[in-house]
Give the backbone structure.
Amino acid sequence: DAGVIQSPRHEVTEMGQEVTLRCKPISGHNSLFWYRQTMMRGLELLIYFNNNVPIDDSGMPEDRFSAKMPNASFSTLKIQPSEPRDSAVYFCASSPGSFTQYFGPGTRLTVL
Amino acid sequence: KQEVTQIPAALSVPEGENLVLNCSFTDSAIYNLQWFRQDPGKGLTSLLLIQSSQREQTSGRLNASLDKSSGRSTLYIAASQPGDSATYLCAVRLSFVNSGYELNFGKGTSLLVTP
């Protein structure tokens, strides 16, 4: 099993640009989570899906952030327009409905 | 909101030492608690999960304990090795909805084991 796949691994963009992060969960997992990690705030849950349906998006910082899961094997997190304070590592994780979440390697986003 | 605190933020020990990492949480009504390991530039790997009804879990040289009433958990690493160098995060499960769940993470303890 390839594990959770995220792309790109690194993204550098300029303020105001649109950024799209992608995630492919482990096959058969029915829950998907997006997290953001910064030195100041640690690891924060942004949104999670169950069976492709968003369950809780209360962690999404503002309307500039949106997430979709069009099918069981793909999810995107979009930031439009991006700002320097969005710079962080974004993790995707999936779960088969058991207690453990399996994390991807993360996307390091730098907004200049 | 559940607050999860990890002390110390960083720790450096010589190889072979036994060590303890601490995690505290403000709301004792948890479902379970997990310890994760994060290597630089990598994602998180689950090490141990303790259900709220359990007191401890063991895996190899790792032992995690849970005291719900006092809002504390410890991760004990025996005979530390340089390969144990990583950041260790504690996470508390808050709710269970439709087979999904949320985790509240501490900021982690960065461990360096020197040869």
